[in-house]
Amino acid sequence: MSQEAAETGEARTAEKAGAGREPGAARPVVWRRGAPRVGQRAVRSRLVRPEDIALFTELSGDRNPLHYDEAAARASRFGEIVVQGGVTSAILNAVVAEDLPGPGTVFLHVDWKFNAPVRPGDTITGAVEVLEVRHDKPITKLATSVRRQDGVVVLEGTAACYTMDIGS
């Protein structure tokens, strides 16, 4: 989401809340399950399938031989086929949109480091932990990570998220 889109969404939230409201008036409820708390965590796991490579290629156009060509992948430092980084990080989209902070949440900014490859057949677990919660706006800062089934952290970093009111 662009800064402009975030500000537009913020303006809509302010309109719904009644811009110019009395001091101390309650802000709109955007966190349907209550505001996140510092230290709160959520995790989600999934099996990465060979079909995920093809689906991501269709979506993104990423046809890097490391994802398709066995010989090229074997000759690389990875030693075998690896999935696109977008397949790895996508589990974090699901965690923030479904679990914590929850529905209506989008990424404003991410700072991720990819540490190790993910291959078809790996089970990955995305995890988030709330580091900061703004009370003037529905923005949270999260520690983010993705681990393989062998415990290796394949992605780590932080994310800033905005949660907007999506109605009931």
Strand order of the largest sheet: 1-3-4-5-2
What is the CA-atom radius of gyration, in angstroms? Answer: 19 Å
Mean pLDDT comes to 85
Strand content: 25-35%
Shape: elongated
Amino-to-carboxy terminus distance: 22 Å
What letter string, H or E per element, gives the SSE order? HEHHHEEEE
The chain-level structural class is alpha+beta
Largest sheet: 5 strands, antiparallel
Q: What is the helix fraction of residues, given as a range? A: 25-40%
Query: Residue ranges: pLDDT <50 for 5 or more in a row?
Result: 1-25
Tags for this model:
168 residues, alpha+beta, five-stranded antiparallel sheet
Structural notes for this entry:
With 168 residues, the protein is an alpha+beta fold. It is 28% helix and 29% strand. It contains four helices and five strands; from the N terminus they run αβαααββββ. The chain has helices at residues 3-17, 50-60, 70-75, 85-99, and strands at residues 41-47, 105-114, 123-133, 139-148, 153-163. It has a five-stranded antiparallel β-sheet, covered by helices on one side. The two termini are 22 Å apart. Mean pLDDT is 85; it is low at 1-25.
